[in-house]
Design goal:
Number of helices: 0
Strand content: over 45%
Distance between the termini: 40 Å
Structural class: mainly beta
Largest sheet: 7 strands, mixed
Shape: globular
Oligomer: single chain
Number of strands: 11
Length: about 120
């Protein structure tokens, strides 16, 4: 079993920055791959960034060059540094984890990010 807890959300103006954190616990194999998703008002959930066991990142086109995903295995933590935030980045952000063999199996409760123009 894996538990995930996000933090770091908040309200910022466009152009600002936020750093999201996800504290993970439980079986490390089951959370070898981790990612950030978001769901904006009236929108479907979308993948934002992912990182595999080796630390290789992948990003959605909409956030490339602005967001950086990273993890600290010693601290069992996942991060999302978000720079140059735009109003369209407003969403609930979720941390997810899985064993890299398929879909993510574990999800956090989410942290709200609101970007005003």
């Amino acid at each position: 079993q894996v538990q995930l807890a996000e933090s770091g959300g908040g309200a910022v103006q466009a152009g600002g920055s936020l750093r999201l954190s996800c504290a993970a616990s439980g079986d490390s194999y089951s959370r070898g791959c981790m990612g950030w998703f978001r769901q904006g008002p009236g929108k479907e959930r979308e993948g934002v960034a992912h990182i595999d066991r080796r630390g290789s990142p992948m990003y959605a086109d909409s956030v490339k060059g602005r967001f950086t995903i990273s993890k600290d295995n010693a601290k069992n933590s996942l991060y999302l540094q978000m720079n140059l935030l735009k109003p369209e980045d407003t969403a609930m952000y979720y941390c997810a984890a899985g064993s890299c063999s398929g879909a993510y199996n574990y999800w956090g409760q989410g942290t709200q990010v609101t970007v005003s123009s």
